[in-house]
Amino acid sequence: MADSENPQEDISVPPAFEGGIEVAIRSRELSYSPYSSFRVGCCIQTKCGKYISGSNVENASYGASICAERTAVVRAVMDGHTDDWACIAISGDSLQQCISPCGICRQVLREFTNPKTFPVVMLNGDGTKRRLMTLEELLPDSFGPDDLHHTA
Ligand code: THU
């Protein structure tokens, strides 16, 4: 249920996601973000309960920076997890508002998930504000792996 005083807030996040939420918040401490000073942490939780964390890693050539979500995606794939993700939780440094994943990260998450059902938990810096959306809500009518198999 959305909080009427703060429509961004939605605390109806399943209890099973609490572990991943904690990991996402703590992962901000490993952020390398000297240019933006905006730390982001995230956690992909697998269906068997494994936590795969990520943080944003910036670069002096700003465009070479990588978001927390993509850090976690790369780690998940390298750990052999490509098709068993339960959810992702993301925490940004703002206390006022929940972070929302960037467009590139939405597309990268799309590669390994069923967008219709994959839950994205968006958090503020301490987890007191929470939003829950499916990836499809964040990235409607998306292009994915199956779309490559329908050539003429
Ligand atoms: N950032 C993320 O890590 N994830 C997002 O979803 C949005 C933005 C990072 C990129 C950059 O290091 C910093 O936040 C400021 O944009």
Automatic annotation (TrEMBL):
<dbReference type="GO" id="GO:0005829">
    <property type="term" value="C:cytosol"/>
</dbReference>
<dbReference type="GO" id="GO:0004126">
    <property type="term" value="F:cytidine deaminase activity"/>
</dbReference>
<dbReference type="GO" id="GO:0008655">
    <property type="term" value="P:pyrimidine-containing compound salvage"/>
</dbReference>
<feature type="binding site">
    <location>
        <begin position="56"/>
        <end position="62"/>
    </location>
    <ligand>
        <name>substrate</name>
    </ligand>
</feature>
<dbReference type="InterPro" id="IPR016192">
    <property type="entry name" value="APOBEC/CMP_deaminase_Zn-bd"/>
</dbReference>
<dbReference type="GO" id="GO:0042802">
    <property type="term" value="F:identical protein binding"/>
</dbReference>
<dbReference type="InterPro" id="IPR002125">
    <property type="entry name" value="CMP_dCMP_dom"/>
</dbReference>
<dbReference type="Pfam" id="PF00383">
    <property type="entry name" value="dCMP_cyt_deam_1"/>
</dbReference>
<feature type="binding site">
    <location>
        <position position="67"/>
    </location>
    <ligand>
        <name>Zn(2+)</name>
    </ligand>
</feature>
<dbReference type="GO" id="GO:0006217">
    <property type="term" value="P:deoxycytidine catabolic process"/>
</dbReference>
<feature type="binding site">
    <location>
        <position position="102"/>
    </location>
    <ligand>
        <name>Zn(2+)</name>
    </ligand>
</feature>
<keyword id="KW-0378">Hydrolase</keyword>
<dbReference type="InterPro" id="IPR006262">
    <property type="entry name" value="Cyt_deam_tetra"/>
</dbReference>
<keyword id="KW-0479">Metal-binding</keyword>
<feature type="binding site">
    <location>
        <position position="105"/>
    </location>
    <ligand>
        <name>Zn(2+)</name>
    </ligand>
</feature>
<dbReference type="GO" id="GO:0006216">
    <property type="term" value="P:cytidine catabolic process"/>
</dbReference>
<comment type="similarity">
    <text>Belongs to the cytidine and deoxycytidylate deaminase family.</text>
</comment>
<feature type="domain" description="CMP/dCMP-type deaminase">
    <location>
        <begin position="15"/>
        <end position="146"/>
    </location>
</feature>
<dbReference type="InterPro" id="IPR050202">
    <property type="entry name" value="Cyt/Deoxycyt_deaminase"/>
</dbReference>
<comment type="function">
    <text>This enzyme scavenges exogenous and endogenous cytidine and 2'-deoxycytidine for UMP synthesis.</text>
</comment>
<keyword id="KW-0862">Zinc</keyword>
<dbReference type="GO" id="GO:0008270">
    <property type="term" value="F:zinc ion binding"/>
</dbReference>
<dbReference type="GO" id="GO:0005634">
    <property type="term" value="C:nucleus"/>
</dbReference>
<dbReference type="InterPro" id="IPR016193">
    <property type="entry name" value="Cytidine_deaminase-like"/>
</dbReference>
<protein>
    <recommendedName>
        <fullName>Cytidine deaminase</fullName>
        <ecNumber>3.5.4.5</ecNumber>
    </recommendedName>
</protein>
<feature type="active site" description="Proton donor">
    <location>
        <position position="69"/>
    </location>
</feature>
